[in-house]
């Protein structure tokens, strides 16, 4: 099976610091790929390179077999790559519907939309409600309530629903359960499984090993700016993954990058 998204020999330097050191990356169709690594290993830079926030100095990225070169996150979004950031990247004072369609608002048809630039709020609200319902998030009663009135889990749910609604190829999730309690984390993990069930492959960046081993199909272990190994959670323990990640254990033969 050919990877849906792959990176080869990716290099990114910040002065004398090499964040990505000839790094490779593979995401297969329909899978949840967890990316783990110690702080400073280069995980964030790798994800930023894929999502268009950073332009690599060297190397190639391919999506659906075609070479891509993003210079901004907007280009990545247009290509079907959506990212749920750790900070959620939402405007608290705006409504759920406004946040769902931020940067891609729907205008009214005809003269009012084209020349007066009026927004079709009814259509946006209907679509937002539909997307939230698909992911079982209709505990949110009012689609027009401000995001700042939602709980942490509900906010994360809105961010995931936005990514699932507009991501046609890949969804990237950066630490989606980092600031959540046990119950809210459980709901987000269920959301991740729901998104996968709809056929969207997911890149999950997380430090939470139990969550990674529960939902991931494969685990990309990042160390010192490159891929150290790719393992399957059913074949290794959490202790093994941490040992490879920290350099205490050599990657198993045949699985090393």
TrEMBL record:
<dbReference type="InterPro" id="IPR003439">
    <property type="entry name" value="ABC_transporter-like_ATP-bd"/>
</dbReference>
<dbReference type="InterPro" id="IPR027417">
    <property type="entry name" value="P-loop_NTPase"/>
</dbReference>
<keyword id="KW-0547">Nucleotide-binding</keyword>
<dbReference type="InterPro" id="IPR050107">
    <property type="entry name" value="ABC_carbohydrate_import_ATPase"/>
</dbReference>
<feature type="domain" description="ABC transporter">
    <location>
        <begin position="5"/>
        <end position="249"/>
    </location>
</feature>
<protein>
    <submittedName>
        <fullName>Sugar ABC transporter ATP-binding protein</fullName>
    </submittedName>
</protein>
<keyword id="KW-0067">ATP-binding</keyword>
<dbReference type="GO" id="GO:0005524">
    <property type="term" value="F:ATP binding"/>
</dbReference>
<dbReference type="InterPro" id="IPR003593">
    <property type="entry name" value="AAA+_ATPase"/>
</dbReference>
<dbReference type="GO" id="GO:0016887">
    <property type="term" value="F:ATP hydrolysis activity"/>
</dbReference>
<dbReference type="Pfam" id="PF00005">
    <property type="entry name" value="ABC_tran"/>
</dbReference>
């Amino acid at each position: 099976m050919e990877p849906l998204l792959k990176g080869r020999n990716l290099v990114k330097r910040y002065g004398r610091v090499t964040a990505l050191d000839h790094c490779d990356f593979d995401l297969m169709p329909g899978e949840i790929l967890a990316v783990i690594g110690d702080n400073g290993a280069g995980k964030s830079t790798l994800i930023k390179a894929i999502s268009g926030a950073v332009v690599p100095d060297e190397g190639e990225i391919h999506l659906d077999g075609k070479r891509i070169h993003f210079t901004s996150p907007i280009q990545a979004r247009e290509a079907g790559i959506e990212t749920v950031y750790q900070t959620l990247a939402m405007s608290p004072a705006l409504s759920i519907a406004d946040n769902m369609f931020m940067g891609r608002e729907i205008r009214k048809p005809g003269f009012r939309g084209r020349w007066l630039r009026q927004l079709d709020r009814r259509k946006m609200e209907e679509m937002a409600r539909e997307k939230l319902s698909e992911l079982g998030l209709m505990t949110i009663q009012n689609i027009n309530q401000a995001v700042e009135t939602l709980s942490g889990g509900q906010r994360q749910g809105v961010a995931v629903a936005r990514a699932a609604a507009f991501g046609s190829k890949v969804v990237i999730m950066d630490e989606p359960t980092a600031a959540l309690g046990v119950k809210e984390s459980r709901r987000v993990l269920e959301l991740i499984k729901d998104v996968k069930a709809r056929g969207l492959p997911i890149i999950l960046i997380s430090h939470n090993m139990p969550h990674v081993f529960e939902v991931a199909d494969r685990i990309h272990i990042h160390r010192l700016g490159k891929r150290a190994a790719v393992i399957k959670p059913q074949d290794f323990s959490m202790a093994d993954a941490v040992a490879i990640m920290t350099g205490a254990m050599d990657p198993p033969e045949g699985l090393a990058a």
